[in-house]
Amino acid sequence: MNKPIKFIACFTLIGSMCLSMLSCGNSNTKKEDNGTLSGEISISGAFALYPLAVKWVEEFQKKNPNVTIDLSAGGAGKGMTDVLANVVDLGMVSREVYQPELDKGAVPFAVAKDAVVITVNTENPFAEEMKKHGISKEAAYKIWITKEYTTWGQVLGTNDKTPIHVYTRSDACGAAETFALWMGKKQEDLEGTAIFGDPGLADAIQRDKLGIGFNNIGYAYDEESRHPNQGLFIFPIDANADGTIGAEEYFYDTKDEFIQAVSENKYPSPPARDLYLVSNGVPTNPALVAFLEYILTEGQKQNVPVGYIGLSEEKLTKGLNKLHGEK
Asked: Cα(318)–Cα(109) distance, rounded to whole angstroms?
């Protein structure tokens, strides 16, 4: 029988998450005489990568039942902090890895691609206008950065004075960093009511008819129906800033349609981005190496079914070479 995955996370109704402390980042892993792996691996970090990591862990443990994997979500910032402090073996990071982090020993492995989308409430009285006109980068900048736009009329080019309720993330995370980067800024430049976690921000928008926020696609779309989660509408990006959303710019009705658009570079990057698993130094213990090898090879077939985008052979080969100490 497979050992269970230890999912160390619990969500409240308002989307908060409490995380148990992981015991140690140094995995007691070994290869038995018969060639089987045993031991423990610990992973923490980005909400964006969490759903796919769950699937990878489940599938890896089917073949390696003696390896126990502790997996928790708490934001990309936590993942990076934990792995550099040797609290966990791998940090899930949903943004680019910065040079100071590389200097401290961070070794990033690109493992998937997804995107951040702008979310509003389905009962927003201007939802149909949003679908027709979309939102430009300039408008987003004036909502989240300068706070010049405070009404829905300003966003949509009308005289309506209905206020916008702006939300952002309170935790250091790849979603906010990537979203801000789209506007040429950093997460700390984003204004709005700060909410912890992807689930929390989605929940806030679902409760507020006039709210606007942003989510990773794994939390914006329902995994079973493949449509946006109940209560959420994806505000389309007007990439060419012409004030209208043409047929070629609208691909938000289903998760599969959106993923295809990202893979064809129809959606801006950022807010589309690569996702990483980060180790502190090149891994050497057998179980961790085997887990990363699985993700960079066979595990890639899980990306699309779970709602992510696979990587190019070039990026996967680069990761495998890095894992084996090759340039």
From this structure: 9
